Amino acid sequence: MLNHLMETGIxxxxxxxxxxQKREWMLYxxxxxxxxxxxxVDFSLDSFDRDVFxxxxxxxxxxxxxxxTTLQVIGGSLKQVIHxxxxxxxxxxxxxxxxxxxxxxxxxxGNKMLLLSYMPFNFEFGPLLRIAVFKTAEEKFxxxxxxxxxxxxxxSVQIFKADAVRIWGQLMYGESGLPDTEQPQYRxxxxxxxxxxxxxxxxxxxxxxxxxxxxxxxxxxxxxAHAWKAYQDRQLRKVQEVKxxxxxxxxYDRRFLGSVVRxxxxxQAGVICFDYSRETIKxxxxxxxxxxxxxxxxxxxxxxxxxxxxCGQEKFVFDIPAYRRTDGVFKSVIGWLAAGGxxxxxxxxxxxxxxxxxxxxxxxxxxxxxxxxxxxxxxxxSAIPLGGAVPVFFTVxxxxxxxxxxxxxxxxxxxxxxxxxxxxxxxxxDVYTDACRLKMMYDNSIIPAGIVxxxxxxxxxxxxxxLREIL
Length: 471
Fold this sequence. Notes:
Elements: H1 2-6, E1 13-16, H2 19-30, E2 38-45, H3 50-63, E3 69-74, E4 77-82, E5 93-96, H4 102-118, E6 129-137, E7 140-148, H5 154-173, H6 186-198, H7 203-212, H8 225-246, H9 257-264, E8 267-275, H10 278-291, H11 295-311, E9 315-323, E10 338-346, H12 353-370, E11 392-398, E12 410-421, E13 425-431, E14 436-443, H13 449-470
Helix pairs in contact: 2-9, 3-5, 8-9, 10-13, 11-12, 11-13
């Protein structure tokens, strides 16, 4: 496989850009911080050879053309430029800290990682990844890759790690390498995306989202009317500021205005962390094992029931990540393929716990089918585009490692300020082998801290009652 990779003959290519590439480029150009939306991937090695490591990097850049892709405006259009690998170099920085004290190493690596993580990339010239190697002992090397999200997503991490380990192992130790097959590239996904946006292939998706977006997003009833009016005024000002900035660019696409507005600036936020009790965790895993079900449904069910109990609200909308990785042609592609969209729920439609969960499963199934189409482009002409102001971002992550947060339960921490969020509320649920932790960030200008604390306890109670009835 390595010989096959080395025989390149590849030249620079200029291709059309996709939805994510256009959106991210506009954000990069108009945000004052140049949008350092970076992802970190790290390894540890017990031996290191500089030449072998550089060769590993070279082969990864050759294998995955997204790592040598930049974005440039050519003839008034935004293009992706896929560079000749022989002329596009990705190096690494090496820091020997083996002779330093533990305190000195911690201070140096902490400061360096902070800089590398938040330093913006140059989209026009690239590369859109950077690499650092820290030698912390004679036989300990910490390898850190930082990618801009433009060329990488959470699924890409798994693909990248597998390829990096196999190439390194073959070069360093003569282990079996990568299969001698053609590697699917991100350009394949972009071509598919272009067809969705610009042809009848996207008709079914456009019809689905047109029906979904008929009504405005429901507002939480516990938000004060005066606070909501001030929030809406801020949103209007943000829309006008984004328009002013993007319309002065050498390239822009009005269809993506809503998604750019949403990510242009943060709202000031509070952040609260909550650990579920052992009894709840036991119920969650029993449900998962018996039903072989995605945990998004059951946690969403508990959330919605708790919101309903707190304020009597019956209609809800959540922004939920989804992935188009089920199609075989995309499953090994590195790049930002993560999609998602808004999902509507009406608590009036279902009575029994089983029927309620089945309904949520159906709604999520519809989302999974249509998530590949960017719903925001159907509403970009509104005063405040729907895609520019999503009420709640909601995601559940499952990991196979233990965290052991201490055996307690309830509210772990609550800072009413000092955080930031794009939405009115962002919810992150981390499910470990021995714990479930909920982190919620909320716009503190419209959502009272007292309501948030009350909700934390209420949602666990609703979740337990729901699971008790089902199990």
